[in-house]
Design brief:
The complex is a heterodimer of chains A (111) and B (112). Chain A has 111 residues and is mainly beta. Chain A contains no helices and ten strands. Helices cover 0% and strands 50% of the residues of chain A. In chain A, strands 2, 4, 5, 8, 9 and 10 form a six-stranded mixed β-sheet that branches. Chain B has a five-stranded mixed β-sheet with strand order 1-9-8-3-4, with no helix packed on it. In chain B, strands 2-7-6-5 form a four-stranded antiparallel β-sheet, with no helix packed on it. Classes of the chains: A mainly beta (111), B mainly beta (112).
């Protein structure tokens, strides 16, 4: 079956612009995560959706970051007024039981 | 969330067995221990999961002592393709609202 997909795979933007990243989880997976990974660094948790519960936003680094999820399907991560320090790979994962399945990531470059 | 501590990096020669230990002193009764592997430019992928004693699959073995305050991922006869970052996570396997989060991981470099 299809895995987790993310789009775009690469995004280059100018400082100050808004960007929207998309994640399509595996069908039936109620849990969805967003992570940020800077070059050579570990995964930084951003936000977590679990079913119809309120999302855990404790990892969002600033109010420029927001995410939404429609039911148990697509999620979008929005970064407003991008800064150069936002450059990273943004990974999405959906989860069943204790296993997370990751998408290929979106590489964001802010010039 | 149970905090995990693992070495930042390890080096090994091809053909050797590699053991990566993770400390999780505050592990809860309902928590499982899960290891992920991440190759460069890819998302992490699941390797193995266990609750206690020993678990073995086609990729690795996971050893968990009785007190469960640590665990050891064992990779038999590593090859160059095992060069990756290995993450240890602890968390419950239920459908609760607690997210599983990744630490910094252990960067394994396999040398020819």
């Amino acid at each position: 079956g299809a895995g987790v997909s993310q789009s775009p795979s690469n995004k280059v933007t100018e400082k100050g612009k808004d960007v929207e990243l998309r994640c399509d989880p595996i069908s039936g997976h109620t849990a969805l995560y967003w992570y940020r990974q800077r070059l050579g660094q570990g995964l930084e948790f951003l936000i977590y959706f679990q079913g119809n519960s309120a999302p855990d936003k404790s990892g969002l680094p600033s109010d420029r970051f927001s995410a939404e999820r429609t039911g148990e399907s697509v999620s979008t991560l929005t970064i407003q007024r991008t800064q150069q320090e936002d450059s990273a790979v943004y990974l999405c994962a959906s989860r069943v039981s204790n296993e997370q399945f990751f998408g290929p990531g979106t590489r964001l470059t802010v010039l | 969330l149970a905090k995990t501590t693992q070495p930042i990096s390890m080096d090994s020669y091809e053909g050797q067995e590699v053991n990566i230990t993770c400390s999780h002193n505050n592990i809860a009764t309902n928590d499982y221990i899960t290891w992920y592997q991440q190759f460069p430019s890819q998302g992490p992928r699941f390797i193995i999961q266990g609750y206690k004693t020993k678990v073995t699959n086609e990729v690795a073995s996971l050893f968990i002592p009785a007190d469960r305050k640590s665990s050891t991922l064992s990779l038999p006869r590593v090859s160059l393709s095992d060069t990756a970052v290995y993450y240890c996570l602890v968390g419950d396997s239920g459908w609760g609202n607690t997210p599983l989060v990744f630490g910094k991981g252990t960067r394994l470099s396999v040398i020819a």
